[in-house]
Amino acid sequence: MAIKTIGFIGTGVMGGSMAANLLRAGFSLQIYTRTQAKAAALLAAGAAWCTSPRAAAEDADVVISMLGYPVDVEEIYWGQAGLLASAKKGAYLVDMTTSSPLLARKIATVASPKGLHALDAPVSGGDIGAQNATLSIMVGGEETAFLELRPVFEALGKTIAYFGPAGSGQYAKMSNQIAIASNMIGVCEAMAYAKKAGLDPQLVYQTIAAGAAGSWSLSNLGPRMLSGDYSPGFFIKHFIKDMHLAIDSATEMKLELPGLKLAEKLYQQLTTDSEGAEDLGTQALIEWYLRQ
Amino acid sequence: MAIKTIGFIGTGVMGGSMAANLLRAGFSLQIYTRTQAKAAALLAAGAAWCTSPRAAAEDADVVISMLGYPVDVEEIYWGQAGLLASAKKGAYLVDMTTSSPLLARKIATVASPKGLHALDAPVSGGDIGAQNATLSIMVGGEETAFLELRPVFEALGKTIAYFGPAGSGQYAKMSNQIAIASNMIGVCEAMAYAKKAGLDPQLVYQTIAAGAAGSWSLSNLGPRMLSGDYSPGFFIKHFIKDMHLAIDSATEMKLELPGLKLAEKLYQQLTTDSEGAEDLGTQALIEWYLRQ
Questions:
Q1: Is the sign of the CA dihedral A109, A110, A116, A122 positive or negative?
Q2: Which of B83, B110, B226, B234 keeps 20 to 30 A from A97, CA to CA?
Q3: Residue B102's pLDDT is what?
Q4: CA B109 – CA B111 distance, rounded (Å)
């Protein structure tokens, strides 16, 4: 099946850039997002406006959702204007929201008897990755559907990996967030310790970043921590959401992840103690240490 | 002062390679190590054997120690055959053991009135870095002494950084170990979660290593964890020692480091639960998770 028309639901910071890349790649887009103003640039670039998720899904070959929380995904799929009821037979439903693996399975279970193909395809790479079409895309669902949708994924990202049945993309994304959670603690603790010891933390970070202590977070967020630049690359509120999803998922699996739980606790304490911290970037965790 | 003769105490896995590099760079070496057999290759390469640390220090321009634990450093410096009593006036005493910052300060305080110059200069980069003279060397002590010893450090490492007064090199090394401790938890938790979710953890690690979850530990130890290769690049027993030093040091500073404490607890549990685990590489922490 040739993919021509894509319904795109949720054109925020991530979704907006992704939709623009799909337009650039030659797909026809029909879009819906909660705040119409956020879609202005896309409409100017040739996307068609829809007044509901249901309308965005109608007659589309593919329906992509890029939302905030699992509850938003449920609303879009099952709510009054739900796309599970309106998508045309044979359509591909691709949820790219970082969401619950179990919800992804549930969607696939409901979609399949309707002749719909559901994929979970969360991404990493942030706003820059979305803009430059260099996202990593982690896909779960039927492999045949994944293969059909490669041209769509290739318009959005650079690393595109298929992990297995429905939910597998979300599981892979959770692994990513779990690795980041404890590493963020390590970076903050190393920098806070260096400061407290009276060292030049900039020199410490430069010296250790090239060796066994090195990480993307140390190299990219360490300098921002040290200069007090807490502008969001990735919002604390979104990271807390992801950690809750990962904790719930690990609990379902009966897997104890004490590092993840500690990270969630520290971020919660930070947002409880300082108003507005949830809208800062994840590197602001260093404040938990500096305030001691 | 031209540096000609170096006393080298402790020619184990790290010290042996470092001493060999000093010989290669043209320094005269007089060496002492607990087990004489471990010095055979160095003696064959032209080093002179000494029967005590005291003898290795006599008439040397520089005395380097590379030992296991702070208690060994105290023994070498103050014990019956202590080098604080035998080093010649004007000599440089360089402790490259990963040791306590406070002990480094104490050595400097005692050395100074005797006309001796003490530096703390722990390293990172492991056995490979020691062999290839690519170590990172983190130096604390008088800056003039550091500058005099640059030729010695340059024979041993690639990144050579001066951090400030006595103890500062140890503080920098502790920062390095603190960053590694929590990151190791993150890498293990991500890999254990991926396995438990039924994903191909090899594919997960390849997909996430290039992005924001990326780290030296993930790229270098992740694959070993997944193949059950626990051969030591860095021994768990040494890492536990370093974490104890870092915890003590943070406690002195009244700095709470919950991630570091968690890492120490998990490694302790692993070595308590499985005999011989202390002689495995640090990546064996994954077993704490896989045994659940």
A1: negative
A2: B226
A3: 97
A4: 6
Quote the CA–CA distance of A31 and A27 in Å, as a whole number.
12
Collect all residues with Cβ–Cβ distance below 8 Å to A214 and sequence separation of at least 6.
A208, B215, B216
Residue of chain A whose alpha carbon sits nearest to that of B137: A207
Q: According to the model, what pLDDT value does residue B7 have?
A: 97
Q: What is the pTM of this model?
A: 0.95
CB pairs under 8 A between A and B: 251
Q: How far apart are CA B19 and CA B133, in angstroms?
A: 10
CB of A38 closer than 8 Å to CB of A16:
yes
Overall average pLDDT of the B156-169 stretch: 97
Residues of B in contact with A253 (CB under 8 A): 193, 196-197
| Chain B closest-CA separation from residue A36 CA (Å) | 31
**Interchain proximity A178–B196, CB inside 8 Å:** no
Do A280 and A233 touch, CB atoms closer than 8 A?
no
Which percentage of chain B shows pLDDT scores above 70?
100
Q: Which residues of A199-212 are buried (b: 16+ CB within 10 A; e: fewer)?
A: bbbebbbebbbebb
User: Is the CB of A172 less than 8 angstroms away from the CB of B211?
Assistant: no
Q: What angle do CA B279, B285, B289 make, to 5 degrees?
A: 140
Compare CB distances from B218 to A179, A207, A211 and report the shortest one's residue. A179
Q: Which of B270, B264, B268, B272 is nearest to B246 (CA)?
A: B264
pLDDT score, position B183: 98
Is there a contact between B174 and A186 if contact means CB atoms under 8 Å apart? Answer: no
In sign, the C-alpha dihedral spanning A63, A66, A71, A76 is negative
10 Å Cβ neighbour count for A144?
9
> What is the identity of the amino acid at A216?
W
pLDDT by 10-residue block (mean), chain A, 292 residues: 92 95 98 92 96 93 96 91 90 98 97 97 93 97 98 97 98 98 98 97 94 95 95 94 98 98 98 95 97 90
pLDDT at residue B1, as a whole number? 64
The reply to whether residue A125 touches residue B211, judged by beta carbons under 8 angstroms, is yes
If one counts every other C-beta atom within 10 angstroms of the C-beta of residue A238, the result is: 16
CA distance B195 to B164: 45
- pLDDT tens digit string along B26-81? 999 999 999 999 899 999 999 999 999 999 999 999 999 999 999 999 999 998 77
Residues of chain A with C-beta less than 8 angstroms from the C-beta of B101: 197
Three-class SS state of B73: helix
Distance CA A118, CA A170 (A): 13
Mean pLDDT over B126-143 rounds to: 95
